[in-house]
Amino acid sequence: MGSRVTAPAVRARKVANGADPLVMVTAYDAPGARMVDEAGVDMILVGDSLAMVVLGYEDTLQVTVDDMVHHTAAVARTSPSALVVADLPWLSYHVSVEDTVRNAAALIRAGAGAVKLEGGTKRTKMVEALVDAEIPVMGHIGLTPQSIHAMGGFKVQGKELDAARGLVEDAKALVEAGVFAIVLEGVPDVVDRLITEADPVPTIGIGAGRHCDGQVLVFHDVLGLQDGIRPKFVRRYATLKADGIEAIAAFAADVRTGAFPSEEQTYHLPAATAAALGLSEEPDEVIGLYGGATMSG
Ligand code: KIV
Question: Which of 16, 17, 170, 257 is 20 to 30 A (C-alpha) from 65?
Answer without folding.
Answer: 170
